[in-house]
Amino acid sequence: MAVDKKDARSGKAPKKESQPLIIAKTPAEQQRLKLERLMRNPDKSAPIPEKPKEWNPRGPPEFVRDVMGSSAGAGSGEFHVYRHLRRREYQRQDFLERISEKQTLDEKYIEKVKENQKAAEERTVKRRKKREKLKQKKLAKKAKMESQKEGSEEKSSSSASEAEEQEDDAEVPSFIMGKR
After folding, report:
1. What is the chain's mean pLDDT, rounded?
2. What angle do CA 144, 147, 148 make, to 5 degrees?
3. Which residues, including other chains, have CB under 8 Å from residue 38's CB and lie 6 or more apart?
4. Which phi and psi angles does 58 have, rounded to 5°?
5. Which pLDDT tens digit goes with each residue over 22-38?
6. pTM of this structure
7. Which residues contact 44 (CB under 8 A, 6 or more apart)?
8. For residue 4, what is the enclosing H or E element?
9. At 112, is the pLDDT very low, low, confident or very high (cuts 50, 70, 90)?
10. Which string of DSSP letters, residue by residue, matches 12-81?
11. Which residues contact 33 (CB under 8 A, 6 or more apart)?
12. CA separation for the pair 96, 60 (Å, rounded)
């Protein structure tokens, strides 16, 4: 009881249960531990890092003060300045090449997507026409069958009287060949 009163007087909240220290051995396990920690308190906002900005080189200077010529008498320190300027210019050119390559790849991708959409649309139109054609064929076949049924009913009524006459004349065979 004395311990409880001491905690209450100090104004501090009682300590949480200590979690066992788990060391992640694989990246998947590390990710799982991070997710578990985030899901313990879902009301707390999760930190989402911003996308790092793309490196952009400095543009070439408009006015160069120390023009290096090929004259004799350049000091030993001038080479290092020249080397640094040359390296920076090569980096800038590489960056511009990468940007232009990325733009061409993006343009090719967009063109390919448009071609794929166009091809898919053409296939859809072709298949739609085929379905409609089959549907028309099916309807025509159905109409033909109905007209045959109507024609056969008319013929059967007239042939019924003929059949009665034939029954009188001849004996009816037990089977008929060639008809179903």
Report:
1. 80
2. 85
3. 44, 46
4. -70, 145
5. 888 899 999 998 888 88
6. 0.45
7. 38
8. helix 2-10
9. very high
10. PPPPPPPPPP----SHHHHHHHHHHHHHHSTTSPPP-PPPPPPP-PPPPPSS-SS---S-TT--TTHHHH
11. 22, 24
12. 12
